[in-house]
Design a protein that fits this description.
Elements: E1 2-5, E2 17-21, H1 29-45, E3 49-55, H2 58-62, H3 74-83, E4 88-93, H4 96-99, H5 103-112, E5 117-122, H6 136-146, E6 149-152, H7 169-177, H8 181-188, E7 192-199, H9 204-208, E8 213-217, E9 227-235, E10 238-247, E11 258-263, E12 275-285, H10 293-311
Parallel strand pairs: 1-4, 2-3, 2-5, 3-4, 5-6
Antiparallel strand pairs: 7-8, 7-12, 8-11, 9-10, 9-12, 10-11
Helix pairs in contact: 5-6, 7-8
Length: 314
């Protein structure tokens, strides 16, 4: 899969393509429907498929300080899109100047002049251009002039857990923030992931017999609510069952919120400096301060047993 940053990275001889545009944070099941249809249509036409996305999130430029928690960094989104069969991903730097493009100018500069769109696939609520003035009706109207078709893909609606809401990144962020990682996984189609580099912490886990990887998360990461979770720690290509702690470590009166993962039954791991991924499978319990270190150790042992059981065979 080709990856481009900015319009200037697109090959000069790029021909016609099927395009879909959006932030696509999380590449959740709703996104997968749209992107999957774009890939399918491209194959029907015998041309490549392209996903266009933005960095930073448009809201950060339009309303500074409003950057939403991110469900997946751009490199992870690209990996997920590649798995869906996408041929190219174009990340457009979203600047104040870019935000001023009218819907018509956006269509001409991006879809017509650079990507030579033959078809554009979007969800029903797609908006674009200055002040989000463009919609799928306008996109379709302009398609008659610039010789591209527009197809709208309806998003599935979740059941009772989501209150009948369609799959969305906003709902997923809300579930993650509440610690409902199983609900988030229902929308994502996989466990929610947090990434970052392992840094040195207070090393209390090592002293207690449960050494943890202290993950310095990427900026704006959507981090689950404080608590203990079952999941996996992936490092250097190896996926290991893990007991994951999110919070300030109230037992030792901590103030800094951290994400720490204990690789269950693994001894002698040296992960410092490695970029790792932590996948959240299930909520186990909330953060707590225990009466003694003995009580804490008993709770940790129980946490590890529950996490081992939850991840076994998964």
């Amino acid at each position: 899969m080709q990856r481009w940053r900015g319009l200037e990275d697109i090959p000069q001889d790029w021909g016609r393509s099927v395009v879909t545009i959006g932030s696509y944070d999380g590449v959740h099941r709703g996104h997968q429907l749209i992107i999957g249809r774009a890939v399918e249509r491209a194959r029907e036409l015998g041309i490549p498929s392209v996903v266009v996305t933005f960095d930073p999130h448009p809201s950060e430029v339009v309303r500074p300080g409003s950057h939403p928690p991110l469900l997946a960094p751009h490199h992870r989104r690209a990996e997920l899109m590649a798995e869906l069969g996408v041929d190219a991903v174009l990340v457009l730097p979203f600047t104040a100047e870019f935000s001023q493009l009218s819907p018509a100018d956006f269509i001409v500069k991006v879809l017509v002049d650079k990507l030579h769109a033959r078809a554009v696939i979007e969800g029903p609520n797609f908006r674009f251009g200055h002040r989000a003035a463009g919609n799928v009706d306008f996109l379709r109207e302009m398609g008659a002039t610039y010789d591209y078709e527009v197809e709208v893909v309806d998003l599935y609606v979740r059941g009772e857990a989501g209150g009948g809401e369609p799959f969305s990144s906003t709902l997923t962020r809300r579930l993650v923030a509440a610690g409902d990682v199983e609900g988030a996984a229902e929308i994502l189609g996989r466990p929610h992931r947090v990434e970052g580099v392992v840094v040195q912490g207070a090393q209390r886990g090592r002293e207690l017999g449960y050494p943890t990887a202290n993950v310095e998360t990427l900026p704006h990461t959507a981090i689950p609510a404080d608590g203990v979770y079952a999941g996996w720690l992936t490092a250097a290509g190896e996926r290991m069952p893990a007991a994951i702690s999110v919070g300030t470590n109230p037992q030792f009166d901590g103030t800094e919120r951290t994400v720490e993962a204990y690789a269950i039954d693994r001894v002698g791991l040296d992960l410092y400096g490695l970029h790792v991924a932590v996948d959240f499978l299930a909520y186990v319990r909330g953060q707590a301060k225990f009466a003694s270190i003995e009580d804490l150790l008993e709770a940790i042992a129980d946490d590890v047993k529950r996490c081992r059981d939850l991840t076994s065979g998964r």
